[in-house]
UniProtKB/TrEMBL annotation:
Keywords (A to Z) from UniProt: Acyltransferase, Membrane, Transferase, Transmembrane, Transmembrane helix
Record's bilayer topology term: Multi-pass membrane protein
Family: Belongs to the DHHC palmitoyltransferase family.
Extent of the signal sequence: none
Domain notes: The DHHC domain is required for palmitoyltransferase activity.
The keyword Membrane is assigned to this record: yes
Listed GO biological process terms: protein targeting to membrane
PANTHER family linked: PROTEIN S-ACYLTRANSFERASE 17-RELATED, ZINC FINGER DHHC DOMAIN CONTAINING PROTEIN
Protein name in the entry: S-acyltransferase
Transmembrane segments: 6-28, 81-102, 114-132, 204-229, 236-257, 269-288
Organism: Panicum virgatum (Blackwell switchgrass)
UniProt xrefs under InterPro entries: Palmitoyltrfase_DHHC (IPR001594), PFA4/ZDH16/20/ERF2-like (IPR039859)
Gene Ontology MF: a single term: protein-cysteine S-palmitoyltransferase activity
One Pfam family hit: DHHC
Length: 392
């Protein structure tokens, strides 16, 4: 019995493509082949497709593809919502059809049948709440309250008017070009929800991520216990060691047990691998958004802070270099009459790098982890004090 290396290679390639597509732009993968794969999947492949369509079918077909892209990426549409429902529905249907017959089992009790239904239902409720709830739309009627609730820091947010809505844009708000509205405490536009993530529904979105992460972990663990129970009940280890003379060790038994499982329980293995990969990806998103909530920062603000810090570092470096150049020119003029230093000494003495003033991120909205989380759970617009706020 040999390990099905072709299936293992297929799983590794699939995992590499999924991770590259979803996480290839993360800083940790910068300059690696994962980033290259991500660039090809998100830009290169589409560019070559457009050129191929234009050469084979003409400009009309190319314009049609561009129109479909505009509808999918630049307008509100339920495509990813339908895709999410299909993923959840098909995955749970396969789980019920192929795995419920093993429940109850040696390690899995019968109440997991009902717990799985509750878990999927709660995930669906959070999906509906996030997708169809108001993210915190800023209108002419409530703009003064939002302006008073969120002060300008005059760093990444300054007082100005929204050129589209023609109303003052509160701090932390942004006009979403897809939804065509200003959203308070704007985080990002989520295509999976077909909705913006803002002040009022960030709590639902984070709960959705956390719950689906736990759901994927739960499904993976249950499937693994089902497989372990089958190995125990069928006495696979005993048969391999007693009748086939296989050495009772992990390295000796693993290939044979793996092939037995792939032959009889390949669906459960594929489901568990699929859910494990999703759990890893969702775990990363959960950790990122938990950090944002604890520091009272949004995704939009994190990008703004990155741009601001990079710009300030370059400006401080330019100022330091200019000051160092001015100082060196002054010292050269004053020391022109002195004896020049030894060439060997000049060779070994290191040139002093100009001291650069560090850039400090001053987030005035960070009020401590407890108050930050409370602001996410109970948005400012849902508090009694919000209705009494007036603009100065």
């Amino acid at each position: 019995m040999e390990v099905p290396w072709l299936l293992v290679a297929h799983g590794l390639v699939t995992a590499l493509v999924v991770v590259s597509f979803l996480c290839g732009q993360w800083p940790i993968f910068e300059g690696t082949f994962v980033q290259s794969i991500n660039h090809f999947l998100t830009f290169g492949a589409y560019h070559y497709l457009l050129r191929f369509v234009q050469v084979v079918c003409g400009n009309g077909a190319r314009d049609l593809v561009l129109g479909v892209e505009q509808y999918c990426c630049d307008r509100p549409n339920p495509i990813l919502q339908v895709f999410y429902v299909a993923i959840i529905g098909v995955t749970y249907f396969i789980f019920v059809q192929t795995s419920f017959k093993y429940i109850p089992g040696y390690y899995v009790s019968g109440w997991h049948r009902y717990l799985s239904i509750v878990a999927v239902a709660v995930g669906a409720i959070l999906f509906v709440l996030t997708s169809f709830s108001d993210p915190g739309t800023v209108t002419a009627e409530n703009v003064s309250q939002y302006v008073s609730a969120y002060p300008y820091d005059n760093i990444i947010f300054v007082e100005k008017e929204c050129s589209t809505c023609k109303i003052p844009r509160p701090a932390r708000a942004k006009h979403c070009r897809i939804c065509d509205k200003c959203v308070a405490r704007f985080d990002h536009h989520c295509g999976w929800m077909n909705n913006c993530i803002g002040e009022k529904n960030t709590r639902y979105f984070v709960a959705f991520l956390v719950w689906h992460f736990l759901l994927c972990v739960y499904g993976t663990v249950v499937l693994c216990f089902i497989l372990a129970g089958e190995i125990k009940e069928r006495k696979v280890i005993y048969i391999l060691t007693a009748y086939y003379g296989i050495k009772n060790s992990f390295s000796g038994l693993f290939p044979h047990v793996a092939q037995w499982l792939l032959a009889l329980h390949n669906t459960q293995i594929l489901l568990s691998v699929f859910l494990a990969i999703l759990a890893l990806l969702l775990g990363g998103f959960c950790a990122y958004h938990a950090h944002l909530c604890l520091t009272n920062t949004t995704t939009n603000e994190s990008f703004k802070w990155q741009d601001y810090i990079m710009w300030m570092k370059k400006e401080n470096e330019a100022k330091a270099n200019a000051a160092a150049l001015k100082a060196s020119m002054g010292s050269a003029n004053s020391d022109a009459h002195k004896t020049p230093p030894s060439k060997w000494r000049a060779f070994f003495v290191r040139s002093r790098r100009p001291s650069v003033e560090p850039v400090v991120k001053n987030n005035i909205y960070d009020r401590g982890m407890i108050r930050n989380m409370f602001e996410v759970i109970v948005p400012l617009s849902e508090r009694k004090s919000f209705s009494r706020r007036k603009s100065d």
